[in-house]
Design brief:
about 500 residues; Outer membrane efflux proteins (OEP); 2 domains; 4-stranded antiparallel beta sheet; two-stranded parallel ribbon
Length: about 500
């Protein structure tokens, strides 16, 4: 009973866990985020309805739905984040293994030759050397178990669990980013195609005007100045076409890369898009509390705080003694017939106590390091929360502003088109001069180009808003390399 008393005491002490217990940090200011300010200011464009998980399906465009799904499956950044999550889970499994006894099984068979010399060998006359040859057989089974007296092992497991959850949130953050960037690349390709089409239509109109001007000049009804002005206007519009072509190709290359393919593998269906996709209703943005719960970067920052808080306990546990229960049993023999004899058995057992004391300078310095790391993680969490709210409010404001500007430019386009048509009729009737016609044509070209650019800006603002809202990571498909089945086992 006396021998069992220390073990019983150790078992009682095993429940003692040092270090701070983690509590989720409260939002700055103490109150949970309320309604988003811009939702209340722009109810026609933005609603407080919950954001759907797959927000890109609001466009009701099968091409964008397919492209985002492919990107979530094959994008290299998402695959890297998934591998980091698998690594974090493996580390957690390793830390959990420290809570179990470690075992080591060994067996050995040797043929040994050794030499010995008599005492005379060290004298002046030398001596005879004797040679010994024999077999040696050994087997052993070693067990050791660290008593988690002060919770160092359990705190390490807790920290690894926080790392796993942070890695999972970082994977979700990668999904949010890639889904938005894929949609952005598709929208950019569509917008450049639309702007290119507008520019080409304007070029056709201006070519007709240039031909008319040349005809009038040849007939003596115009001046060389009129011809040159018409040519300038035509050349300025023609100069826009190569830019739109180049930007369209660049967007298609980016789209291929985002979906895990070489840039030259351009998606044929995406290349046929001629106008940016439109939403038929207000964007559902939810409220601030739902935003914070949904944003994976905020979740990753919070889980990092939990992991770093647990590491403070790991560092504090190093101030106290460590006790390992150790045992070993095996056999030694020089002949096979002796191997199973009771006399060949060897064993040992007992505790091993280690303690860094009294010089604990290093341990206490590591505690200060761990506390500082936890404070930095808390600051990152606060920053992530504020950034999420700030990005969303800014995106909401810019989207509402883009819609208002687009509505005004649409009205300007309609008016300029009517003015150009009237100016053409008046010019044909002799009521307007050529300068007035050219000015009307220029106004119409500028208004059409501004409207097309505004349509692109609205679509861009929509994607930025969806990205800020942090959706798109829920129920994501399994990752895989192009050409490999999804979720294929890795060696």
């Amino acid at each position: 009973m006396k021998r069992l008393a220390p073990l019983a005491l150790a078992a009682i002490l095993t429940g003692c866990v040092v270090g701070p217990n983690y509590q989720r940090p409260a939002p700055i200011g103490g109150a949970a985020p309320g309604p988003l300010a811009e939702v209340e200011r722009s109810p026609a464009a933005i609603s407080s309805a919950p954001l759907p998980d797959r927000w890109w399906q609001l466009y009701q465009d099968p091409v964008i739905d397919r492209l985002v799904t492919e990107a979530l499956s094959h994008n290299t950044s998402i695959r890297e984040a998934a591998a980091n999550l698998a690594r974090a889970r493996a580390i957690l499994s390793e830390q959990r293994g420290a809570q179990l006894p470690s075992t080591d099984l060994s067996a050995q068979a040797n043929r040994v030759q050794s030499n010995s010399a008599s005492a005379a060998a060290f004298g002046a006359g030398g001596g005879a050397i004797r040679t010994f040859r024999f077999d040696q057989f050994q087997s052993g089974f070693d067990v050791s178990y660290e008593l988690d007296l002060f919770g160092g092992v359990s705190r390490a497991v807790e920290a690894s669990r926080g790392d796993v959850e942070a890695a999972a949130a970082q994977l979700d953050a990668a999904r949010v980013s890639i889904a938005a960037e894929t949609a952005r690349a598709y929208v950019s390709a569509c917008s450049n195609a639309a702007q290119r089409a507008v520019a080409r239509e304007t070029v056709e109109l201006q070519q007709n005007t240039f031909k008319l001007t040349t005809t009038l000049f040849d007939a003596g009804r115009g001046t060389r100045r009129d011809v040159e002005r018409a040519d300038v206007l035509l050349a300025q519009t023609q100069a826009q076409l190569p830019t739109f072509d180049a930007e369209h190709r660049a967007s298609m290359y980016a789209l291929a890369t985002l979906t895990g393919r070489p840039p030259e593998e351009i998606d044929a269906q995406a290349g046929q898009c001629s106008a940016p996709p439109q939403l038929g209703a207000a964007i559902p943005a939810g409220d601030g509390a739902a935003l914070i719960a949904r944003r994976p970067d905020v979740r990753a920052a919070e889980r990092s705080v939990a992991a770093d808080t647990a590491r403070v306990g790991v560092a504090i546990a190093d101030l106290y003694p460590k006790i390992q229960l150790m045992g070993s049993i095996g056999q030694n023999a020089t002949r096979g017939s002796q191997f199973l004899q009771p006399t060949a058995v060897r064993y040992s057992f007992g505790p091993l106590i280690s303690w860094t004391f009294p010089n604990q300078t290093v341990a206490r310095a590591r505690i200060r390091q761990a506390r500082a790391t936890a404070d930095a993680a808390l600051a990152r969490f606060d920053g992530a929360m504020l950034t999420a709210l700030n990005e969303t409010e800014q995106a909401l404001a810019r989207y509402a502003g883009a819609l208002e500007r687009n509505a005004a430019l649409a009205r300007a386009e309609r008016s300029s088109t009517k003015a150009a048509e009237l100016s053409r009729l008046r010019f044909d009737a002799g009521a307007d001069n050529f300068l007035q016609l050219i000015q009307a044509e220029s106004d119409r070209a500028n208004a059409r180009a501004a409207r097309a650019a505004s349509d692109a800006a609205v679509a861009e603002a929509q994607i930025s808003l969806f990205k800020a809202l942090g959706g798109g990571w829920q129920d994501a498909p399994a990752t895989s390399r192009i050409g490999e089945p999804a979720g294929a086992a890795k060696n």
